[in-house]
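hey can u run this one w/ S-adenosylmethionine bound, need the structure tokens asap thx
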Amino acid sequence: MTTATAADQTETARVALEEVCSGRDLDGIPRVYHPDFVDHVNRLEYRGHAGARQSVGLYLALFPDLRFVVHDQVSEGDQVVSRWTLHGTHRGREVEMRGIVISRFKDGRIVEDWAASDTFELVRQLGLRRTMMLALTRRKLLSGTSGTSDGKPSVTRRVVDRALCRFRRNRACPIPPSETERVRKIQDKAAAGYDRQMNFFDRVLFSGGREWACAHARGDALEIAVGTGRNLEHYPPEVKLSAIEFSTKMLAIARDRAAELGREVDLQEGDAQALDFADQSFDSVVITLALCTIPDDRKAVREALRVLRPGGQLILLEHVRSPLLPIRAIQRLVEPLTIRFEADHLTREPLDYLTEEGFAVDQVERLRLGWVERVIARKPA
Ligand SMILES: C[S@@+](CC[C@H](N)C(=O)[O-])C[C@H]1O[C@@H](n2cnc3c(N)ncnc32)[C@H](O)[C@@H]1O
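ok here u go:
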């Protein structure tokens, strides 16, 4: 155990800010910070030497020429209060941010920091565009350590994550596991009225779409999220068909329909996000009007890629984000309601990520003011 005088502690607090936090002496972290160090930065929290490194890294990533200047320090007992100014340049814009940190000492090293800084002033100096870019590009540095005490992200974080996710459209978004259960319940409830509702939409919006999608199916084909089986009648008879669906109510109607049609099909209950099929089992995968509903649509596409044989095709019929601004604006306006009550995402667009997930997009057709999309994508050989 080390006994440090008030002067020692004050000096350590100064060194921590001016030398270590400025990034000039990152190796000094173990000298000034205790292994049990906890850093409370506004609402964020960093722990241990790794946390200290991460916290400094956050600032350094924003301001490569980072410099902290300590103005005043007050010491009492095991605590030192330091008033500081951060100086730095971000993308050509010089900024200053003022703040205060209370450092608590244990065995001569800082074991806890509470920092409060004038981030609003920083945002004002950076300007809206740089701040928006920062929110998008540096978010990773902020994530991982912040959250509620039970380890779950805070409500604010979840809202921000969702907003960023929608803004960054083609990036993978975190989906809470409970969402799959929520969607399944909605679909079970909707099953009885689904065909009546879809009779209208199939006529007005998607006419010819089911015939088009099924006509492209070849060999061993899998339909993902088959619903009530509205496509079954359109598959060529030579196609060896399997289909999955996670709503038992929808699936029951699909089974009745297959029996009525005399269509042989291996209908199974299953989750599109974790298919129960071996890699490279199918020549075609068909998805119609379901990527808008599957909680993690991108994961479903990844699964489709996995179960397709090289050269196999993914055939999609979807309603998507319209390229026309007025329509897109309406879609965005009503989407929170459709997601809430029907688990229906109006502004999803598989083209945002198909290529990134490993597909080669062979054919795209936009219909109904760009609202409806037909896509054929191939798993490269
Ligand atoms: C709008 S309906 C479309 C049904 C059908 N594909 C059609 O074209 O009529 C969306 C379907 O996706 C199913 N679904 C949603 N998430 C799913 C998942 N994770 N796994 C399997 N099916 C899912 C729903 O139960 C529902 O039947």
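The chain has two domains: 6-146, 178-378. anyway lmk if its weird
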